[in-house]
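Researcher: Here's a chain I'd like modeled. Treat it as a single chain, no partners, no ligands.
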Amino acid sequence: MTGYFAWHELMVPDPEAAARFYGAVTGWGTRDASTPDQPYTLLTAGDRPAAGLLPLRPADMAKGALPGWIGHILVDDVDATLARATALGGVVHVPPRSVEIGRFAVLGDPQGAVFAIFAGTLPEPQPIGTPSHVGWNELAAGDWPAAFDFYAALFGWQRAEAVDIGPMGTYQTFGLGGPAMGGMFDKPAAIPRPFWCFYIAVGDIDAAGTRVAEAGGQVINGPMAAPGEAWVLQGLDPQGAFFALLGTRATP
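Model: Modeled as a single isolated chain. Structure tokens:
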């Protein structure tokens, strides 16, 4: 099925250090999947690929690229989707490129949040909440209704549950007609730009927060209660990449 987040990647200056950190926090293993042109590490949950890891080169950082995660949305045709995205007000950050397993491009939505599109072969996605897999995709938007309209027109997303989050307004979940795969809301003014955040399922959220600190990361928000008896926290890894965790709590 197209239109869903099919893959997530982390780009950092030191991939080996990142593999150690996320391995300690989430239990991920590693598998080398480099090509002659591109170093690449698969982050694995058991024998299943769960995410990708690749180096952020100094030349990219000199152009303003920062360590961080990006989500890939599966499409039938990268070039046709890119044309629709730009017609809807999106921008192109990385033009379409072909790799061994498919073709991808990196875009920005009209409000500046960055995402990727991919056509090709990717690992079968796991159900939401599967341990050591990304379990939620969240957009902190400048104007979430306008952002939703962009993604709905591009990928066919549908509104699911709308949750009142008090002074911050509405948290709108979305999907493709089945279970919700993410949510979006209007970011606080203190957050400088819209961005996508991805939540990794980890089991006990308090134990995971302890592992973050012990591995050299920083918890910057949470743990916080979320709908459905879930708990979440957000943090920075040792290289400054923003990440989030999704789990449970034995004693709320």
